[in-house]
Specification:
This protein has about 100 residues and is mostly helical. It contains three helices and two strands, in the order ββααα. The longest helix is centred in the last third of the chain and has 36 residues.
């Protein structure tokens, strides 16, 4: 047993386990688990009330970026075909 002097000059007698429980902080993971309950480990939604997680939003951005690049490449291929390849093979003529 240890004796601790409190700031009010009273002497408290505490056992080592009581001191440990007062001094040792609770782990952040355990605190988060107690606070979230059933939702612990589940991804947080980007907007509350909308069932879209950060992972889903990241996948959407990735796919939309790939789709945008595919559209740019297709537009360049169409422009090259209309402007140079078609007239080069005599498929059509440009008017201006």
């Amino acid at each position: 047993m240890r004796k601790l002097a409190a700031s009010t000059h009273l002497i408290l007698t505490l056992s080592s386990s009581e001191i440990t429980s007062l001094v040792a902080p609770m782990g952040e993971s355990k605190r988060r688990q107690e606070a979230l309950g059933e939702n612990y480990g589940k991804p947080k939604p980007v907007i509350p009330g909308v069932p879209i997680s950060k992972e889903t939003a990241t996948k959407f951005v990735s796919w939309s970026t790939k789709g945008a690049w595919a559209g740019i490449i297709l537009m360049i291929a169409a422009w090259l075909t209309i402007r140079f390849i078609g007239p080069g093979f005599g498929w059509w003529t440009l008017t201006n």
